[in-house]
Amino acid sequence: MYVLYTLILFLGGLGLLPCILWRCLRGATYHHDLAERFGYGIVPPTTVQAVSGCLWFHAASVGEVQGVRPLITSLHTSLPELPIVLSVFTPAGKQVAQRIIPEAALTFVLPLDLPWLMRRLMRRLCPRAVIIQETELWPNLFRAAARQRIPVVLVNGRLSQRAFQRYQWIRPLIRRVLADVTVLLVQSEEGAQRFQHLGADARRLHVAGNTNIDRALLATVQPPPSHPLAPLMRGRRLLVAGSTHEGEETILLSVYRQLYECYPDLLLVLAPRHLERVATVVRHVQAHRCHVVRRSQCAHIHAADLTGATVIVAPIKLEGGSGGPVRILALLR
């Protein structure tokens, strides 16, 4: 099973190269981390000693990075001498991680889950443990850790009904992957039952809740006064759309123009899912005859300057995916 998985992944990676190059030409930033995706330049020689014996966290993208942040902060406070490294899967995730998790001595894009790349990375980092946020199941990563007797911990584990049904098609592989996980900390009893049905050892399963909920409950409802958007939003009605995909802005702008006729104090805030689309979204807003403000301009604009239909385009969250055949993301993020 592992050989077949590795072969499919390797051929799929080669097949995706033209797509990645095409997206780069359209403004995506995947090429910036292309070397890391193939396992090169992740751990510079000057930092090998500094990160050796680290705690290795992995969070797929922006939402997962935000979700794992409290755990990293708490561990760093308790064990400041223990180095922390963080891997992500998307350029946006890496950008956010570098900004909000200064405790990480190293932040990088996870390479393709090929056995030789994972073995080499494991030797370079020599982690004390690998901690995975939510449900990122990487067979060769987990196997490389298990062979070096490195614990693998899954935190905030969750398994939707759709993912559960999908995993059942490859249940023999998933059973072997879960056997390499030392501890599974899942969000709910329902999730624990699904993991157990896929082959997880019940003795390693623990229902520990969801740190995303904890983070949401602790968060303030209103934006802090120091936030650049706060002065522009205060006293205004807001329509906030986060993680929007291509085509959804058209629907939102059409709805906003109609609502604005009844509520002239209404402000639309758009946060595109992919950061490289911001410039395109700005042009799209202008084509709908709306005044557009980018987040970088907020500090230099006063609320009195916002006249007429106004749209703020800012990577800040209705969640995207509701305007078409796209998976709806977790609102708590």
Report what the structure shows.
- The model is unreliable at 299-305 and 316-329 (pLDDT under 50).
- The protein starts with a helix and ends in a 20-residue tail after the last strand.
- It is an alpha/beta fold and 333 residues long.
- The strands form two sheets. A seven-stranded parallel sheet has the order 3-2-1-4-5-6-7, sandwiched between helices.
- Helix 13 links the parallel strand 8 (237-244) and strand 9.
- It has 14 helices and eleven strands.
- 32% of the residues are buried.
- It folds into two domains: 2-218, 3-Deoxy-D-manno-octulosonic-acid transferase, N-terminal domain (Rossmann fold), CATH 3.40.50.11720; 230-313, 3-Layer(aba) Sandwich (Rossmann fold), CATH 3.40.50.
